[in-house]
Amino acid sequence: NAGVMQNPRHLVRRRGQEARLRCSPMKGHSHVYWYRQLPEEGLKFMVYLQKENIIDESGMPKERFSAEFPKEGPSILRIQQVVRGDSAAYFCASSPPSSGRNEQFFGPGTRLTVL
Amino acid sequence: GEDVEQSLFLSVREGDSSVINCTYTDSSSTYLYWYKQEPGAGLQLLTYIFSNMDMKQDQRLTVLLNKKDKHLSLRIADTQTGDSAIYFCAESGSGTGRRALTFGSGTRLQVQP
Fold first, then answer.
1. Which of B43, B98, B99 sits opposite A106 (nearest CB)?
2. Does the distance separating the beta carbons of A42 and B42 come in below 8 Å?
3. Hey, are the CB atoms on A91 and B42 less than 8 Å from each other?
4. I want to staple A75 with a disulfide (CB 3.0 to 4.6 A). Which of A8, A69, A103, B21 is the partner?
5. Cis peptide bond upstream of A39, omega within 30
6. Alpha carbon of residue A88 to chain centroid
7. Band of the pLDDT at B97, cuts 50, 70, 90?
8. What is the pLDDT of residue B28?
9. Which residues of A touch B96 (CB under 8 A)?
10. Which residues of A touch B88 (CB under 8 A)?
11. What pLDDT score does B29 carry?
């Protein structure tokens, strides 16, 4: 059973470009979370999605950031008009259908560098 | 909002025990977790503890929870060089079911041979 997959692993963008980060959850998982990790810091929650629904986006910046998890295909975190402050590691996690313990399994992350 | 705090750095010798500490503010936290992050990698769930427990042991790992003081610790027995990593404490808020986790900023464990 493959784990959570994220691609690309490393992404370099110039200021003003768009960044698209992809996450495929573990097989059988239909809940996805995105977190951001700034250098030397812990992970900060951004958004929690179920297939075709955003459940909690309380951690998402109000502008330039969006997320989706379509019925088919991976979850996408999209950052428009990137700025240097967006440079960070972005982690996706997924959880199984019956998750009373709220166990979240993390992917390897996408490291975004904005030049 | 909820807050989770950890000391930044711990250095131990191979074969010694390591104790990593964490404090949290949300007294209604139902589950607390320990994750391990190796360089350039994602987070690996090591263990969790339910809030009505005060101790959980899993092979070399022992988790202690003092709910009154809102203090959580992770003890690694017979620490090995492969245990060198960043360890994150996290809490899930009140109730069961899925929700965002709140993480500490991580403790970097360095194991000296």
1. B43
2. no
3. yes
4. A69
5. no
6. 12
7. low
8. 80
9. 100-102
10. 42-43
11. 79
Q: What DSSP designation does B82 have?
A: G
Give how far Cα B26 sits from Cα of A43, B7, B50, B63, B87, Å: 17, 18, 14, 18, 20
Q: What is the pLDDT of residue A102?
A: 80
Q: Per the structure block, which two tokens stand in for A16?
A: 């003003």
Nearest CA in chain A to B101: A45
Length of chain B: 113
Q: Is the pLDDT of residue B96 over 80?
A: no
Up-side HSE of residue A9: CA atoms within 13 Å toward CB? Answer: 6
Q: How far apart are CA B104 and CA B19, in angstroms?
A: 16
Contacts of B102 in chain A (CB under 8 A): 45
Residues 6 or more apart whose Cβ sits within 8 Å of residue B31: A101, A102, B48, B49, B50, B51, B91, B92
Identify whether the C-beta of residue A71 lies closer than 8 Å to the C-beta of residue A57.
Answer: no
Q: Taking a contact as any Cβ pair under 8 Å apart, which residues of chain A between 51 and 90 contact chain B?
A: 55-56, 58-59
Write out residues in chain A with pLDDT < 50, as ranges: none
- Chain A residue with Cα closest to B40: A108
Chain-chain contact of A109 with B42 (C-beta, under 8 angstroms) = yes
